[in-house]
Amino acid sequence: MVKKLVAVGCSYTDDCYIFPVWPELLAKKLNYKCINLGQSGSGNECIFSKALDALVKEKNIGLMVLMWSEFQRMDFYLGDIKKWNNLHYNVDGVIRNMEKWKEDVIDLLDKNDYNNKKHQINRTLRFMYSIQKLCKMYEIPFIQLFGCD
Description:
By secondary structure, this protein is α/β, with parallel strands linked by helices. Helices cover 38% and strands 21% of the residues. The chain has helices spanning 22-30, 44-57, 100-111, 117-138, and strands at 4-8, 33-36, 61-68, 73-77, 84-88, 142-146. Helix 1 (22-30) links the parallel strand 1 (4-8) and strand 2 (33-36).
């Protein structure tokens, strides 16, 4: 039975490009089947949730690789594994949301002091630690890394 590479991440992982992305190349090199759960714009809650779902659902995982995203993304689940949406907190004055309503929500959160980098970092560290413990419990090899800025 062929082992599986489960890859989860944001746009650096997403297979939406005209060229092969790293999960496909790594799976080919390892002679594994590629399960690519990357989605552009994903924040770390989405990445964690997709990885957790894969740990429960997929059999014969030979390697799980999580490419964590930046801390300043807030994810919302819309009922389907591909139906995640997100908001981006503005970093150093750079507006990241394309839709005005998203920017209005971020402005409201900022005004009420909910743009807390320490909380965002701690939340991601909890996700990372939880996946690490689960992979060890299921005896699944794993790699965790961050995408570039």
